[in-house]
Amino acid sequence: MKTTVEVNDLKMHYEKEGDGEPLLLLHGGTGCHEDWAYAGRAEFVREYSVIAPDARGHGATNNTQATITHRQCALDMLSLLDQLGVSRCRAIGVSMGGNILLHMATMQPDRFKAMIVISATMQFPEQARAIMRQVPAPDKQPPEEWERMRRSHKHGDQQITKLWDWTRSLQDSYDDMNFTPASLSSVTAPSLIIYGDRDPLYPVEMAVAMYRAIPQSSLFVVPNGGHGPIFGDAAHDFTQTALKFFRMA
């Protein structure tokens, strides 16, 4: 079921499918909810009622603000759960979605039965900022990138331009993602942290720091894995690991 609801100051698009307890899936930056089709979403639908929204300014969800912050996206997602009558759920977030999930879990720790955080970060390290500085301006993006983005985002080229500008602007963002071990210690849900050991954005030491900070956490490092090592050929191993974790948590 695809639908749109008014959340805070925007119209949020989400898709809901399956029976069972709710499972919230949060996509990565410049992506959309459809990306989960390449990360084993069908496997999750067999056991859970999957809720897959488009974050603020992504996919079919609009954005009335000048920019995007992970903190505001977290407030949006909590409001969505309120509207759906979901008082407690499991959740998975990848990259930006993982960052959003960290905000949600520190804002409302009791909201989650268990969560999986993939390729998220406590702060943006210099190696990530260097990559952000290299994001091409919209007029320098190749035609195939424009075509790929147009398939995901439904509000025209202006939306896509804003997403690329936002991604590049993260090089100067210091307060939005600024978690400390003390702040992450407030997370109460059993948490699985998944990282690739070849992530070009975030060093695997960041995963270890989160693992040490979040009380009930487990760490799974994907050998030779890059950023978001859960898609394509890696999807089956990821879903089996995730489902096993949720059953045990």
Could you explain the architecture of this structure?
- Strands 1-2-4-3-5-6-7-8 form an 8-stranded mixed sheet, sandwiched between helices.
- The two termini are 28 Å apart.
- It is 37% helix and 20% strand.
- The longest helix is centred in the N-terminal third of the chain and has 14 residues, at 70-83.
- With 249 residues, the protein is of the alpha/beta class.
- The radius of gyration is 17 Å and the shape is globular.
- The protein has a single domain (2-122, 179-248), classed as Alpha/Beta hydrolase fold, catalytic domain (Rossmann fold, 3-Layer(aba) Sandwich).
Report the sheet with the most strands, covering strand number, pairing sense and barrel closure.
8 strands, mixed
Cα distance, first to last residue?
Answer: 28 Å
The residue-averaged pLDDT reads 97
Low-confidence stretches: none
Could you name the CATH class? Answer: Alpha Beta
How many strands in all? 8
Placed side by side, the strands forming the largest sheet appear as 1-2-4-3-5-6-7-8
The gyration radius over C-alpha positions equals 17 Å
Strand content: 15-25%
Q: At the fourth CATH level, what is the homologous superfamily?
A: Alpha/Beta hydrolase fold, catalytic domain
Please, how many helices?
Answer: 9
